[in-house]
Every structure is written in structure tokens, then in C-alpha cells.
Write a sequence for this structure.
């Protein structure tokens, strides 16, 4: 069974640009969550999606948005990039909102110059 | 608010020895789940073990066991017979409610170094 796929793996952008990151879950997994990991703030929850609906959102500005498609793939978008958005963005998938195992992807490392 | 505390920034252990990584948590929820993840230098988070707040037995998964002490709000990870490949960051995490939402609150992590 293929694992969680995240694309791209690495991204370099400049301030003010926008970026879209993609997460393809394990086959059969319909719950997708996104996390931001930085050296200063650690791992922080961004959003959670299930059946194309955002079920939960972390404490991030409106520049951070996401969506989930009917095939459970999810994208997150960051507009008007700031230097502080440089981070490792991880997505995690589960078979259901109550599943006890969340499987993480390899992450997308975003650098904002 | 839920909070996870990992007080050990770094731990050193020799190969084949056992090591305990500490984790304490704070929550007002009665129903919650506790998780441990391993993050090698590659960045991917690897699920290790899960403990539900109502589970009476401590969770075990191969060489990993979770020492769950509910009254003390601690969920320490025990790795038996350490291997060189165990060198990584280890994160303790809590799910705010045991069912319904997948949001995890993470601790700051412990870096484990296993020496030959």
C-alpha cells in the first residue's frame, strides 16, 4: 500500500508570492490534517478535512487556506508569503476522524526569501 | 487548553540498553488519546504507539511500550534494546478528544542519540 504523498518536497518562494501544497492520502483514508513545523514554534495544527469538509482549524491567519477533493486529496494554500512561513509542512491521514493511527507524509519544506 | 510537556531536550543511550522518554500532559477532557511519533532527520513523522485515556492496559508495540500513569498525567515512552536506527527526534502528542477530531497537540520533542 502506498504511503502518504506530498508534493512538492521542496519549494523556494519570495515574500508576497503564494504557494499551493498537495497531499495525497493512503488509499481508503478520507481524513486529512495539516501541520506546520518550525524550529521556534514546533508542530502546530493548521486544518483538518473529512469528506471535503473542513472540520477543524488551527490558530493561523486567513492567508492559510485549504480544501479537500472528492478523491480525498487535499491542498493547502498560503497567500502573500512572509519570511515566517518558512517551515516544514506535514500532512497526516487517517481512515476516519476517529482513527487511532495518523500516518504522516514526508512533508514539503518551504523556504521564503 | 491542552498541553504536552517533554522536559528532556536530549537523551543519550548505548545500543541494546533501554531508555525512557518522558511526557506529561494537561487536559480537562476525560476522553483523550496519547501518541508517540518518531521523526528521523528525513522529516517524516513515524507513528509508534497509541494509548487511549480509558485503556486499562499500557500499550505496547514491539520494542515500544507506553508507561501510562493517568493520575500523574504522564505517558512515558519506553524503548527496549535500543538500536542505532532509533536515533531521531521523538514527539509526544495528545488528541483533544478521543473520537471526532484528529487535531494533535505536540510536545517540543526529545532528541535521542543511540551510540554503539
Amino acid at each position: 500500500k502506498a504511503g502518504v504523498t506530498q508534493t512538492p518536497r521542496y519549494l523556494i518562494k519570495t515574500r508576497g508570492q503564494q504557494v499551493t501544497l498537495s497531499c495525497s492520502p493512503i488509499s481508503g483514508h478520507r481524513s486529512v490534517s495539516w501541520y506546520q513545523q518550525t524550529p521556534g514554534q514546533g508542530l502546530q495544527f493548521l486544518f483538518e478535512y473529512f469528506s471535503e469538509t473542513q472540520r477543524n482549524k488551527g490558530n493561523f491567519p486567513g492567508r492559510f487556506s485549504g480544501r479537500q477533493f472528492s478523491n480525498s486529496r487535499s491542498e493547502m494554500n498560503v497567500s502573500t508569503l512572509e519570511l515566517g512561513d518558512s517551515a516544514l509542512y506535514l500532512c497526516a491521514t487517517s481512515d476516519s476522524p476517529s482513527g487511532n493511527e495518523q500516518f504522516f507524509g514526508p512533508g514539503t519544506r518551504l523556504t521564503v526569501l | 487548553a491542552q498541553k504536552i510537556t517533554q522536559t528532556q531536550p536530549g537523551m543519550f543511550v548505548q545500543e541494546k540498553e533501554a531508555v525512557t522518554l518522558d511526557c506529561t500532559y494537561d487536559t480537562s477532557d476525560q476522553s483523550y488519546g496519547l501518541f508517540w511519533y518518531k521523526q528521523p532527520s528525513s522529516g517524516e513523522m513515524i507513528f509508534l504507539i497509541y494509548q487511549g485515556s480509558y485503556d486499562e492496559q499500557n500499550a505496547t508495540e514491539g520494542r515500544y511500550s507506553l508507561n501510562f500513569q493517568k493520575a500523574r498525567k504522564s505517558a512515558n515512552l519506553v524503548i527496549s534494546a535500543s538500536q542505532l536506527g532509533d536515533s531521531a527526534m521523538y514527539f509526544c502528542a495528545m488528541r483533544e478528544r478521543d473520537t471526532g477530531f484528529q487535531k494533535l497537540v505536540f510536545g517540543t520533542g526529545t532528541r535521542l542519540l543511540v551510540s554503539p
About this structure: The mean pLDDT of chain A is 94. Chain A touches chain B through 27 residues (CB under 8 Å). The CA atoms of residues 15 and 81 of chain A lie 5 Å apart. The radius of gyration of chain A is 13 Å.
